[in-house]
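Structural prep section.
Before we set up the soaks we want a predicted structure of the protein with zinc ion in place, mainly to decide which crystallisation condition to try first. Input record follows.
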Amino acid sequence: MLVLGIETSCDETAAAVVGAGGHLHSSIIASQAALHERYGGVVPELASRHHLERLLPVIDVALREAGVTWSGLGGIAVTRGPGLVGALAVGMATAKALAFVHELPFVGVNHLEGHLFANAIGSGTLPARALALIVSGAHTDLMLVEEPHRYTVLGRTRDDAAGEAFDKVARAMGLGYPGGPVLDRLGQGGDPSLAPLPIPMQDGGLDFSFSGVKTAALRALAAHPDPAPEFLAGLAASLQRVVADALVGRVARAAREHHPSGILLAGGVAANSVLRRRLGEEAARLGLPVLIPPADLCTDNAAMIAACGASRLTRGERGSWALDVVSDFPL
Ligand code: KG4
Ligand code: ZN
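Run finished without errors. Recording the tokens verbatim:
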């Protein structure tokens, strides 16, 4: 079954076509990052208006690149939440209208489950009993995938998400928005010992906390009013190292406690080179297989929504015409 995925939860207008076995036929992303950059973050009203302008053209290109017409599709999957309500509503209303006109089934997808399903592209499914770490701009969740579509949450952040901490420190460093990718590049040649930071929350079971390390990084920055480039590179390296250590440390603890079949990484911060490397090393130490999506499928995209939707549609799930969007939609 070929499924059209639609993603408009934040500042990427995206459409994709995914087929049987999670085969990726097309994935189009129109990023609004340049539009929001001058405000240092996403302006919800602007995001909605731009989704409205760009979504149909983006869908058009996704279908053309996939070489598929409406009659060749088996269904539509759309992000239902969590995210910005106005932005989500544009995607939902568009998906319903298209489903209605073309007489296709549609299904609403949880954006976080969508991130997990970036790991199903190429296979169509997620491994059962896998330990999953979802790290994005708004979430840091550790969970057990009991089976596809059934999850047990093991831990989550008690304050800032990891991506949020990266974005806030990057903004104070004058690196623009979103800050994660810039910090990643800047830190590559950096010496972390030039800006030592504490490892975030060592206790607290399987929960996370990143506001303390964010504040420590902001203080270190304030103590260097005219920072040398080496200091900034060192701070970027140091921040990524301690955040990755905290994330990987929890994964290792959860693996010892829950004996998973493997490890899944997902969410925008999964594009981070330090985290990818350190999680790979830890998985090898634990003797567990690890799945990490290619970097362009870690950040927001519609292929992951289509992959998740395809799995749900195949199980017979159908969205109703009354389906609403949900800003806070736990998995
Ligand atoms: O999943 P995502 O695209 O959107 C949300 O659902 O939140 O995640 C966006 C987050 C932002 O905080 C961004 O700075 C971060 O992912 N990010 C990165 C990298 N690429 C994106 N953080 C660190 N290193 C990266 N390479
Ligand atoms: Zn996301």
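Observations: Residues 10, 136-138, 163, 166-167, 178-181, 184, 267-269, 271-272, 299-300 surround KG4 (ligand 1) (CB under 6 Å).
Flagged for discussion at group meeting.
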